[in-house]
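Running co-folding for magnesium ion.
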Amino acid sequence: MISIKSNREIELMKHAGYINYLTHQEVAKNIHPGITTKELNNIAHKFILAHDAEPSFLGFEGYPASICISVNDEVVHGIPSRRKIKEGDVVSIDIGVMYKGYHSDSANTYIVGHASKEVEGLVENTKKALYEGLSVIKDGVKINEIGKKIEDYATKNNLGVVRELVGHGVGTSVHEDPDVPNYYTKDCTRLKSGMVIAVEPMLNLGSRHIYMETDDWTIKTEDGLPSAHFEHTVLVTKDGYVILTGDEVA
Ligand code: MG
Ligand code: MG
């Protein structure tokens, strides 16, 4: 069932989204060669708790950490560990924040220092693909329009679109209906004002194909080439959308 949020719920979700944004800022300024992904996880964990919120992912379906950190050929759900960040790494940070029972979900990808033109293009174009997808959002639009935009943009830029994982509704659970795929489907569900969804393209420099690591969490590209991930939680409005996981003060 797709939920329509009340004004009170939207206010709480704006706050959850703003803490999420601030947590991303805090993690981003600590990403440098030599820091471990576990240390970045702990920075996020403490920061979220200090803002009277909770990390949505900790314990979600048994997930063992507070945020997801996926490096290079890891697409999503990388578990923070003693792995050290290196110069040239592509680091995707995915953060969920719950405030007073309401969630927010957002991801960013960073290049540590310098990378090849190709890898820079991957990260830049995955971010652009997110905004392409967001651009069609308003009351009455079919959800499949979002995926069509993202897929068209990715294809034009020779990037593989991961299909096994999709965007989703957000609310009292971090994953709610509806699914929001990053590719065209025949689903004719329409967006409605008051819906809150997470749009999250995962694009690969090579083919779209992925596999699950033996830890049963980490998703990797089959060809070993890097992947990027950008995500915002947005509120659907009559004329457009509002990004809840941006820098708007709630
Ligand atoms: Mg996420
Ligand atoms: Mg998500």
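Result summary
Residues 7-28 form the longest helix (22 residues).
The chain has a mean pLDDT of 97.
Job closed.
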